[in-house]
Design goal:
Length: 640
C-alpha cells in the first residue's frame, strides 16, 4: 500500500479537492470552496494546508462566522443540495457563532460542512485562550454545542481518525433523506500532526445520488387511496425541487386534474400562474390554497415535512382527510398516519401516474373560483395605499403605529404595494431570498415566480440574519442572474456581515430592506393575543419609562454606502420604481434599497391558525378572548 505523509489539515484539504457528486448522468465537484474566518485554531494548521494543497477550491474571507456559514447554506439551497461550501473558524466564540447556521441547515435539510478549530487534544497547554473549563469533564469543549444541531459530529483526536470521519461526513452530506449540518472539530495541535495516509484515500471519489424507486406495494396502496378520493390536493414541498421533479409534478397534477398548494421550500417548482397552482398554503398561505385544503378528502404531500405553518398547526385539513406521503425520509413518511411512499419524488410520481391511468379528480369550478377570488385580493394588495381610505391591513390595539410612523419618518408607502412593484419590475429570471419576519408571509402569498427555482425562502428555522448573508451564497450559485434579498430592518440589524464580503468580491446583490421600525410580525402576534406592545417597536423611551416615544429614524442607506455599496432611500412608489430601474445598471457592486414602509401594512392570515403559547391566566379581557379562540381552534386540530 502506497502512502503519503501529510499533516491532518493537508490531508483534509486534499480529500475535499477530490469529492464529486453524480446524478442523472451529470457530475461535478461536490465542494466548491471554503468560507474562512481565520484565528488561532485554524489559521496555522488548516491555513497552511490551504496554501499548499488547494488547487480547485475557492476560498472566501468571511466577516462573521455565522454570516459566512449562512452564506454556505444559501448556496447549497440554491444549488438544490448538489454542491456545497465548507466553513471554517477559530476555536471558542468563532466556532460557537456557527452553531446557529448549523441549526438553519439541519432544520431545512441542507448540507453544510463546518470545520471549527478546537482546543488541544494533548491538553498540555490547557486552558488555552478562549477555552471553557468544565469541572465535570475535561473532554467537553465549545464545539460540543454542535451536537444538538448537526446530523453528524466528530472530533479528530488523532490524524488517522480523519479518514473514517470524512467518509462518514460525505455519507451524510450526500444523503437526500438525512442531510443537514456536519461538524468535524479540528484540535489545533492535531491539524499540524503528520500521518502516513494511504494514497487511495485521496483518489477521486464520486458519490452517486441515486433515485430511490418506490416499492410496488407502496404504489398500490397510494393509488388505492387516490382512487377513493374525489377532491385530492397536492402539496408541493422542497423535495420536488431538490429531486428536480418539477416536470413530473406538473404532469401529474395536469393528468389527473389535481390542484396543488406550495410550501415555502416548494414555491417556484412550478410558475405562479399555472391553472392548478393555488399558491402558498398554510399560516403564511393564501385564501385559494387554504380554502381548497379545507375541502380536500386526500392530501398528497410530495417532499414536505408538514411543518406547523404548512398545516396551520394541524387544523387546516378536514378531520376525515387521508394522507399519502411521498418522501425520501422514513420518519416523515408516517406523519398524519398517512400511506408512506419512501422514494425519490420524480420516481414515485412517475410510477403513481402509471398506476392511476384513467383516474380524474372530481373538482368542478371550485379551483377556478378560488383562484379568481385570490387574484382580486392580489390586485388589492398590490395597490394598497395608506391614506386612501383603506385602513392598515392588521387591526389591533396598536394600529395607531402606522399614523405615528408616517408622521415621524415622512412615509406613506405600504409593504404590500412595495413588494408587488418590485415583483413587477425585476427581470423574470431574477432570484429572491428571504427568511424571517412578516416578509415570508407576504412573499409566500404575493410573490409570483415566472421561472423555476427562483425563490429561496429559509423557513424551516426562520433565522433572522440569513437574508443578506444567504444572498451572497445565492449569488455565487446563480452567477449573472440578479439576486434580491427581502429583509426587514430587525433582521438586517441582527446580521448583515457578509454585505462587506459582497463589496470585497464585487458581487451584485440587491438588498430590499423594508424598514417599519419594528419587529412587525412579532408585534402582530403580541397584540393579537391581547397584549400591549413590548420591545417589538423601535421607539425612543417616553416620559413614563416605556418605549412609546417617536420612532427612531435609522439611515440604512448611509450604512450601506459606508461599506461601499450603492444605496437608495425610498418613501414612495415612484421613488421605488426609479431606484429599482436605476440599480439594474449597476454592475459588480451590491445595492441596498432603504424602503420606509408603514407598520401594519403587510398581509394578514387567510383562514389559517397558528398555535402559540396562549396564556391561561390573565387580568386582561383581551387575553381571555385570545384563549377562547385558541381552545376553539385546538378542538379542530388533529392530534397526530
Amino acid at each position: 500500500m502506497k502512502t503519503i505523509r501529510l499533516t491532518m489539515a493537508q490531508a483534509l484539504v486534499r480529500f475535499l479537492e477530490n469529492q464529486y457528486l453524480s446524478w442523472d448522468g451529470q457530475e461535478q465537484p461536490f465542494v466548491r470552496g471554503i468560507f474562512m474566518l481565520p484565528g488561532h485554531g485554524n489559521v496555522v494548521g488548516l491555513g497552511q494546508a490551504l496554501l499548499q494543497e488547494r488547487k480547485r477550491l475557492e476560498v472566501y474571507q468571511g466577516k462573521n462566522e455565522q454570516g459566512m456559514a449562512q452564506a454556505a447554506v444559501g448556496f447549497a439551497k440554491q444549488m438544490k443540495r448538489k454542491q456545497i461550501f465548507a466553513a471554517t473558524s477559530s476555536i471558542g466564540p468563532g466556532a460557537a457563532n456557527m452553531v446557529t447556521a448549523c441549526a438553519t441547515a439541519t432544520a431545512n435539510n441542507i448540507p453544510l460542512l463546518v470545520l471549527p478549530g478546537d482546543t488541544y487534544a494533548s491538553r498540555q497547554p490547557d486552558p488555552v485562550l478562549q477555552q471553557i473549563e468544565q469541572t465535570h469533564s475535561a473532554g467537553i469543549t465549545t464545539n460540543d454545542a454542535f451536537r444538538a444541531v448537526c446530523r453528524y459530529f466528530d472530533r479528530i483526536h488523532r490524524p488517522e481518525q480523519l479518514m473514517s470521519a470524512m467518509i462518514n461526513a460525505m455519507r451524510v452530506l450526500t444523503d437526500p433523506a438525512d442531510t443537514g449540518a456536519v461538524c468535524i472539530a479540528l484540535p489545533q495541535d492535531v491539524e499540524g500532526e503528520a500521518y502516513d495516509y494511504p494514497e487511495s484515500f485521496f483518489k477521486k471519489r464520486v458519490h452517486e445520488l441515486e433515485r430511490r424507486p418506490p416499492t410496488a406495494y407502496a404504489i398500490k396502496q397510494a393509488a388505492a387511496a387516490i382512487r377513493q378520493s374525489k377532491k385530492p390536493l397536492l402539496i408541493c414541498g422542497g423535495g420536488v425541487r431538490y429531486s428536480e421533479a418539477h416536470e413530473s409534478f406538473r404532469n401529474f397534477a395536469e393528468t389527473f386534474g389535481i390542484p396543488f398548494g406550495e410550501t415555502q421550500a416548494g414555491k417556484s417548482a412550478v410558475v405562479w400562474d399555472h391553472p392548478l397552482n393555488l399558491g402558498g398554503i398554510g399560516v403564511t398561505g393564501c385564501s385559494a390554497a387554504n380554502e381548497i385544503a379545507g375541502q380536500a378528502d386526500l392530501i398528497i404531500g410530495v417532499g414536505t415535512r408538514y411543518t406547523d405553518f404548512t398545516t396551520a398547526s394541524k387544523s387546516l385539513f378536514s378531520g376525515s382527510a387521508r394522507f399519502v406521503n411521498i418522501t425520501m425520509s422514513p420518519s416523515q413518511s408516517i406523519k398524519f398516519d398517512g400511506v408512506p411512499v419512501i422514494a425519490d419524488a420524480r420516481e414515485a410520481l412517475s410510477a403513481l401516474q402509471e398506476a392511476l391511468s384513467d383516474y380524474r379528480a372530481g373538482y368542478k369550478d371550485e379551483v377556478k373560483l378560488a383562484k379568481e377570488k385570490w387574484l382580486c385580493e392580489l390586485e388589492r394588495l398590490d395597490n394598497m395605499a395608506y391614506g386612501s381610505g383603506q385602513a392598515p391591513l392588521i387591526h389591533d390595539a396598536n394600529a395607531s403605529s402606522a399614523q405615528k410612523f408616517a408622521e415621524d419618518l415622512n412615509s406613506i408607502l405600504t409593504q404590500t404595494a412595495a413588494l408587488g412593484l418590485i415583483n413587477h419590475l425585476i427581470p423574470e429570471d431574477a432570484v429572491v431570498i428571504g427568511s424571517s419576519g412578516s416578509l415570508p408571509g407576504d412573499m409566500q402569498r404575493m410573490w409570483r415566480p415566472k421561472t423555476s427555482d427562483s425563490y429561496n425562502m429559509e423557513y424551516g428555522y426562520s433565522c433572522m440574519g440569513y437574508e443578506v448573508c444567504g444572498a451572497v451564497g445565492q449569488k455565487l450559485a446563480v452567477g449573472g442572474k440578479e439576486v434580491y434579498s427581502m429583509v426587514g430592518d430587525g433582521s438586517f440589524v441582527m446580521l448583515h456581515s457578509e454585505l462587506l464580503m459582497a463589496v470585497q468580491e464585487r458581487l451584485k446583490i440587491n438588498i430590499c430592506l423594508f424598514d417599519n421600525a419594528s419587529y412587525g410580525c412579532i408585534n402582530n402576534l403580541q397584540v393579537e393575543q391581547g397584549n400591549e406592545s413590548l420591545c417589538t417597536e423601535l421607539r425612543y423611551r417616553g416620559k413614563d419609562g416605556k418605549h412609546d416615544g417617536d420612532f427612531l429614524h435609522v439611515d440604512y442607506a448611509a450604512i450601506a454606502r459606508g461599506y461601499g455599496a450603492k444605496a437608495y432611500t425610498v418613501r414612495t412608489l415612484h421613488e421605488l420604481e426609479e431606484a429599482v430601474k436605476d440599480a439594474l445598471k449597476v454592475k459588480d457592486q451590491p445595492v441596498l434599497f432603504d424602503i420606509k414602509v408603514i407598520p401594519k401594512s403587510m398581509t394578514d392570515g387567510y383562514g389559517a391558525w397558528w398555535r402559540v403559547g396562549t396564556v391561561e391566566v390573565s387580568q386582561k379581557e383581551a387575553n381571555h378572548k385570545a384563549l377562547e379562540h385558541h381552545i376553539k381552534q385546538l378542538n379542530k386540530a388533529r392530534q397526530y
